[in-house]
Description:
Strand order of the largest sheet: 2-1-6-5-4-3
Oligomer: single chain
Structural class: alpha+beta
Number of domains: 2
Amino acid sequence: MTLPNLPGGRQYVRLVANAETPAELQVLNGVILALLPADLAGMGSGPDNPGVLLGLKGYPVPGGPVGTDYLMVPAIPASVIAAFNVIPGSQGWIVPAARDDFAGIGVALINTYGINASLVLGALTTMYNAAVTEYSERVVQGWNPAPAAPPAPGP
C-alpha cells in the first residue's frame, strides 16, 4: 500500500482488532487515520501501558502497511477481570454486593482517573486483604458483628 506523504508532521496509523477487542469496536478494524503529533502523544507504549487515541483504549504495534498499527483493547483486560474475580480466594465472591462495591471502585479509578487496570487490581487486593485482617482480629478479640436484638415492646 502506498500512501501519500502528509503535511504538518501527520502520521498514518491503522486501527486493528483482535479477539479481546470489544465487539462494538471490531467495525473499526483496518481503518487508517492521518493524525497530528499531538494526537499520538497518548497512544501508550504496549499491553502493560495502554493509552487512549481519539477515545479508543489501546497501544501501538510497530509494523503493518502504514508503519504503525494501533491495537484496540478493552478498558479492563480479561486477565484483570479474571484476577479480580478471585481476590477473595478460588471460590470467588460470595456476597454480590461486596463484589459490586469493589468493582465500582475499580471501574471508577480506571475510567475516571485513567489508572492502569493492573495497578487498580493490586490496590483492590491490598484493601480486601486489609479488611479481612481487621475483621479477623476483631473476631479474635470478641467482637460480635451481629446487631443486638431490639428491646422488647413495653407493657
